[in-house]
Design a protein that fits this description.
Layout: H1 6-11, E1 19-22, E2 26-30, E3 38-44, H2 59-76, E4 84-86, E5 102-106
Antiparallel strand pairs: 1-2, 2-3, 3-5, 4-5
GO molecular function, one term: catalytic activity
Protein name: Histidine triad nucleotide-binding protein
Pfam family, one: HIT
């Protein structure tokens, strides 16, 4: 496998992070560059580079990440008010660390569309 990502180093406790949750499959910590009052990253301990690399057998792991997100929303007290969960894929999708992860964002009213000021790329 390629060079360790920053997330691999956080999982190995080689670099510090403000960890808010950990189990045998996943780890959640506060984002160091928060985009909302609450911005947590939920990562699997198994590295999968992008959504495009997911395989059928990964469905339970990805589902687990969403269960963790819901539990954290309850724990932090914003489940009823609402929150956003996002997983980016590749550069144009906003992915900067090639280890899949959920962004759990809360603490403000989020509008739609989320990227209203960005111009869409011509597809196709």
């Amino acid at each position: 496998m390629s060079t360790a990502t920053i997330f691999d180093k956080i999982i190995a406790k080689e670099i510090p992070a403000e960890i808010v949750y950990e189990d045998e499959l996943s780890l959640a910590f506060k984002d160091i560059n928060p985009q909302a009052p609450v911005h947590l990253l939920i990562i699997p301990k198994q590295r999968i580079a992008t959504i495009n690399d997911l395989e059928e057998h990964d469905r339970e792991l990805v589902g687990h990440l969403y269960i963790v997100a819901a539990r954290l929303a309850q724990q932090f007290g914003f489940a009823e008010d609402g929150y956003r969960v996002v997983m980016n894929c590749n550069e144009d999708g906003g992915q900067s660390v090639y280890h899949i992860h959920l962004h759990l964002l809360a603490g403000l009213t989020m509008g739609w569309p989320p990227f209203a000021n960005n111009r869409p790329k011509q597809l196709g």
